[in-house]
Input
Amino acid sequence: MGGLTRNERLVIGGIVAATAIAGIAHFADWEPLLAFALATIALAGLAHIVSLATEQVGERFSPALTGVLQSTLGNLPELFVVIFALRAGEVVVAQTSIVGSLLANALLVLGLVIVFGARVAQDGVMRFRTRLPNDTATLLLVATFIIVLVGLAHATHEPAARHEQTISAVAAVALLGVYLAWVVPYVRGEAAPEHTGAGGPRVAFAVSVGLLAAGGLGSAFVSDWFVDALQPSIDKLGVSEAFAGLVVVALAGNAVENVAGVVLAHKGRSDLAISIVKNSVAQVAAFLYPLLVLISLLFASQLTFALSPVLIAALLLTALAMWQITGDGEAMAFEGWALMALYLILAVFTLYE
Output
């Protein structure tokens, strides 16, 4: 099938079967924890499909274009998870899952990518282009600027807090404009494909694109089943909604980036691995979050940029940490471990929220 090996076809068949079983568990009302676990396994399997397809697409196009494409498809589950959560009135889960998605990619996934990328480098230093890390830090700081202002007004009961929904909607439109002004020149400006010396792509382009689309859209459907089993699972496990959104939902919804970025870094594809993770951070901060703020206007439960002081501080410090570690185009393994440590501390903190 278009250059896929026999083992790859068998694995893809198994993933399709796992997804079908997760669907049966959802529609047959199986025990929530079991349905939740099956949905998580299905998401991870679909992430593997996207990882395979992304690597093959990356052989033809620049890391910039491939990263944007993969991140867009990879963030589809997050988009649908939040929409389903808002429809169910789970505003805390919806909001923390967006922020959790951003923090998981910027700290945990980026940390893993750096550790694996540095490990395969001959001198123990992972090297990559500097433009995207710096651009991502700028986009995250712009988004954080808005979040800090709205959050402080909300916490201190400033007069502007009475209009935080309107302010959030206007800010969302502004953020989307900034993202569009960045992403078009970025993709056009880095048009050269990444050379790996592997002899070019072995999977047909149509098959690669089909796998990307199937993996992303399949993840969207599985996300609905995931959300349906989430609240009963939270009740049984006894964790807070903040922890569920910031850690559980964020990790499951970003399984695509978790797998694809780490696999590519382990194979020495530094630019593409960094591009996938950084594009995801940029998209969540300056595209997905503002888009969902606007979409939430259609629901009774609406999303704003008003976050808790802890999350505001976490976003600001994350932006600074990302810029410090990746802004020079080099990263060592201990810096990856440092990013993961920050995520672990934050996860433990939210466990007791």
The first helix runs from residue 6 to 27.
